[in-house]
Amino acid sequence: MYDKQYEILALTLRYWFLLLILYIFAKCVVRTLKDVFSDSPSERSTGNIPFVLALFSLSSFGLLAMQDSQNFNKETALLGIIISAGVLFQFYLIYFLFPGIDEILLLMVNTLSIVGFVMLQRLTPELALRQVEWFAAGCIILMIILLFFPRVKGLKIISYPMMALGPLILFLVAFIGEESGGATSRLPVGQFFIQPAELVKVIYVLVLADSLKNEKTIREKGLLFLFVAASVLGVVLQKDLGGALHYFLVFLFVYQISTNDWILTGFASGAGVLASIIAYKIFPHVRIRVEAWKNPWSDIEGRGWQVAQSLMAMGSGGLVGLGLGLGSPYIIPASRTDFIFAAICEEFGILVGGMVIGFYALIIIRSMHKASMAHNPEDMLLACGSAVSLAVQAFIIIGGVVKMIPLTGITLPFVSYGGSSMVASFALLGLIQSVSIKNYRHAIEMENQADSEEYSREDEDIEVTLDEEEFYMEGAEE
Amino acid sequence: MKHLKRNIRGASMVLLSLFMLLTAYFYYNLFLYSDRWFSNPNNARVRVDMDNPHIIPGSIMDRNQTVLVETKSFAEKNGSITYYRHYNKDSKYAAHVIGSRQYGIGAEVLYIKYLLGYDNNLFERIYQKAFLDQEQGNNVILTIDMQLQKYIVDAMGNEKGSVVLMHPQTGEILAMASQPTFDPSIIHEEPAEGSLLNKAAQGLYPPGSIMKVITAAAALENIEGISAYSINCKGVTEVDGVVISCYGGEAHGNVDFTRAMEVSCNAYFAEIVQKIGWKQFKKTAEAFGFNKDYIFPDIKTTKSHLPVSRNTEKEELLWSAVGQGKVLASPLHMALVASSIANGGTMLEPKLIYGIQSRTGKIHLQQSRKIAEPISSEAAEILTNTLIGVVENGTGRQARSVGMLIAGKTGTAEVGADKKPHAWFIGFAPADNPTLAIAVILENSGTGGSKAAPLAARILREASKLGY
Prior knowledge:
Oligomer: heterodimer
Distance between the termini of chain B: 77 Å
Structural class of chain B: alpha+beta
Shape of chain A: globular
Strand order of the largest sheet of chain B: 4-3-2-6-14-15
CATH class of the domain at 208-352 and 373-465 in chain B: Alpha Beta
CATH topology of the domain at 208-352 and 373-465 in chain B: Beta-lactamase
CATH architecture of the domain at 208-352 and 373-465 in chain B: 3-Layer(aba) Sandwich
Strand content of chain B: 15-25%
């Protein structure tokens, strides 16, 4: 009767998991409100969030280790320990090596990743291990970016090569890529597949930030539009509709922010809407998506299958979920990648699901705040471009999973299984954190300058008084 | 720099409002539909594995606790135990209410949350897992009375159609019949085509003259002194350029509000809908639940349609007022209309679950809640008196019963030249303190007055005899 003991444990621990995530979420909300909306930012401290996170990972992996009724799965438990220790190590390493990084942002990303690890371990244990490896790779990329990027003076030199490289890769993949799930977006490299569209997202943000940092001539603008159009077209050719939508929306946001050019933004949005209508009319697979979105229940065996399964999973979860290991999230198609949000809602409950959405919202608030604090237009656009990229991606996929917008398959940043997505998301995080570090260094510089100025002014004051004394003394002499 | 800062703030606001919208949509949808999604027959999570049940599903009983479906088991020769759902022999009389997992309909599917005990609290669930050899679901006690249900199905005979009988003051559905029916206990034979549809809740019919109740309610709410207003009906009357004929071309002569309802004069109601205007007419009808996708926790319904708008042609609007245009309504909805008038203008949510009986035998009663207040209690009273007149000396005369004051309205919905019309009757009794509300529809059977009204009266008398 091990099974029943596990069930009792899992049923009870639902509340424990909810409590831990809620604690982290509440702390992050409070810190963000303090940092963004109050004049005196809070002290640089993380409190116990890293340890609560480690506790969450330990207890959830510990529970999953007991899932098999016959024996305690030592591998799962070990993975849990490695993750807890690894994340603590990663956090404090980056925290102390790079003064000025936004530690709450890093913690929120870690929380999302760990929720993803737990879900993957529960669904397909082998993938969880690999995802942890990707996470580690992502962290290394993050640290490399943090080491070098704050020193980079400008992107001008690499801007044009990148402009050519991005669309080139996308077109190449569209023609020689391997097909999976209706899209030809994967490239086989050794025993892995990489999704270049994910990685090009980083290049895309870099190019946008560099090209839009100052007033442009019409020719330069034309070049940028050509680059954007080519990139979007490249993704469309890969039949990756979510990706195309993502690329397009990121451009719209960054362009509008930098130029305040409502006419062109409106025109481009109109063109986007027109393009989607044409796509709806021409491509049958687009029509299928839209119909499945409008009413997934009418053709539940066919078109509506994916969305209906996702909705049933979320409906079954209830507020606190069915319990880790007690639901059947493996029924949901693509539950490891696109639909991982539905799987989380089923087993952890929709309260945790709502907090996952909340974490993305907090990531936007914090990153945009960092962006608005930056000291040159390029940094501003880099940080807000990266934040917009992450936010739009999360919105497109969660919106699709909960049937708010038609479903287009892209990954949920930091949570979904996928190496390319993980690395690209960490690279974007790296850009935001670099800007944060630059802001911090700039603030310190200013402080030092102010200190020395104050010092010299005090000297002047003293001189003046001396002069006056001399004056009086002189007068006295007379 | 400055405009960048401002624009970044603006973009964050846009993104944040998108995320807020997403969260709101997420929770709102789950709040409305999560039970539906959970109990969807395609949800493989709650598949009842009868060979090796994880949880023994509970029974379904009627309000007198007669067991309708239960889980039984027998031991195979090799010692293993096989479980199966055992249907009461009378279950075919309430086939659509009880339903079947095989066909994905009825209480067997919709109430699976209770039958499998998913609604139990944490303590009970842990107790069952820890101390019981076999987990058990809860029993669902329905509001229907099996005796009454049987009587109604027998009384309908071979007629196709549907009867809904409910308690207007509590919203409880005492009986809900849909013909043709099937036998859920026979699992190896395909049921006859169309017999799986619960016409009572999901069948849509043109309401015919019972729509006049809604039109009259709209008139009472919107036109001062409507009770005194009268017209001269010539059988085929021209109303504002549209020719409106009464049933059978009968000329009713001078009719006022009460008389027009009693004789079911099309011209009169076409005339007054013209005075009310499409907007107010639609408003009242929607207050009564037209065009509204109700998500009742106990019962799946189909939306009733009243497609009028600014662009509706005059002819269509006038015919809608007498239930003959593109108007469509379900019998359950019409029973709800009758019971909201009976209940002084307050519409209650229809209930099919009387209570949930837990493992220990304790019954948790379920309460109905108010869903709408379509008309004022004064208007409801006037309407009640008018409807009493319909039965006392109007088209509903054949429903007159000794010792029971019935209020009601007949309807004869024409469905094509070569077919007999649908016969409708909605009403409630006793009219001074209604405890019963009814909707009857007999497909292609004849006029409402000659077919539906006498049947409704029989059913109401029988229900009253049984103490309702």
